[in-house]
Amino acid sequence: MVNFKFKSKEKINQLPKVPGIYFFRKGKKFLYIGKASNIRERVKSHFQQPGYKDCLFLNKVKKIGYIPTSSEIEALILEANLIKKYQPKYNVIWKDSKNSFFIGIIKEVFPSFFYTYDHHREGRSMKYEEMKKKIFKTSGFKLQTSFIGPFVDGKALKQTLKILRKVFPYRTCCVGTVGKTLSNKPCLWYQLNRCLAPCLLKSKITREIPSIKVKMIKKYQSNIKNLIKVLQGKKIQVLKNLKKEMNKASAIEDFEEAAKIRNQIFALEKILTHTKILEPEIEINNWEKIERVFKRIFKIKNKVSRFEAYDVSNIQGQSATGAMVTFINGKPEKNFYRRFKIKISGKPNDVAMLKEILSRRFKHSEWRYPDLILIDGGVGQLNAAILKAKTYKLKAKVIALAKKENKLFIEDQNQPVLLKKFPREIFNLFLQLRDEAHRFAISYHKKLRKKKLFD
Model's pTM, two decimal places? Predict the structure, then answer.
């Protein structure tokens, strides 16, 4: 029985700032169900910066329902279960074959998982059939498959499964008949304790001692059953089962096995309490509206559509790199991403490195200049970027975002402003710009370090 709680629209500030599920209803009919790492802030964003989808149902809502959860993973799972159960109108309308995810479980001796998009009741869809053909080279192969879902957030779902694999290892090598597809030797996942390596059953010692095979099959299938139950929201049942197994192992003095199960219990409890999987939910539904708000806040008269963000990555000046990412109308345009191998030498100097990156970029007027420049850093980086922009006669607004406390240092303003004071969609946009630039710079930096190591 789901324990729903409600607040009126006028009391949004009384919603809890915890992970969980929120939903909008008209009478007893569910209109929309969503998940959040912070219920209060996420619900506020619907009303403060409504997109086109929100406008279809918000005026019908008098109360906001919510269910707090102890973790973001539980929020993800509960959202899937509630959408499946109540079929909220505006979740269903906005689903298509690319944003409703299911986990498929192949029923065999050593079950494996795969991701698929929305499927029909009999478990068949174009995406599913394409997956089968790719793996088995035929559409006639019979798979006994069960599905868990639908999950709306595919990225969070994949991250969740990746995390849970640390507690309940399973194979990902191949999908299909065990005897035909298992490898001949363990891979890296076995070394990382992410797989029990059923391929070891082909070894000589396993053939000579049949009990090893029985024990591995039993342990592997137990892992899969527990993992499925967690994904179905039955974590309490899983923890109880694990504790029973631990006590049983202790009773027969198999203390090594008991210790392994105890560690599983601790790891699962920690993951289900502390793991962060929900990224800031960014919806650029109406760029013209966001642009108007943006121009008003930052006192910009000209059109604002092209944003460029810059970041520098290095370790004590070694293998220093710079990155530029480009967003157009609030969305990343990876064709315009650029990366720079820093040429200056000497002591590490982030400001000098930034100047080099900007000089090299601004020489390329054919790339089209940005309307706004976002720099990772504080006053020093801001002033350096302003100087370079003026040198090349750019009209772009220059802003620096400091990691500590997320302060914005804005051109022509004496005091920094906390990013959290801005409307939600602008807050999210800046964070996404900064994080994407950092990710792109780090990836190139690691590539150069790796190349240098092998050279």
Answer: 0.58
